Amino acid sequence: MMEIKFTKDYEFFRHDPPHNEGENVRTIVTIRDNKTGEERTYESYCIWDEDSQCPCTFIWEEGNYSCDCNRKIFFGQAMGEEYDDDETPCGDNAYSVKIVSKKNPSIVIYRDGYYELEATNERD
């Protein structure tokens, strides 16, 4: 059984063995098709970084999840569609992502593309 821990802003859990080497944070991911403006939302998680005491977003910033070819798959899976699309070219501007804490959705863990522009405009 997985171990679960709560804090004010995050819900932590450990995967069942053999994938239980560290803690994870439950998240809500909103992914946007920048061409159509359509948004889809699904539950996911981020690995907790003990050193920085925050969710690790490297995989979304520079890892495999930052590429349009993978984000197209996530976009489809958010609606229960199965994608295995070898024809989507790699890139970094077709989809934007916003990730928030599932426990406290006002806590933005990561945002890029359209969502970062939107946040900048709100501050101005």
TrEMBL record:
This is Uncharacterized protein. It comes from viral metagenome.
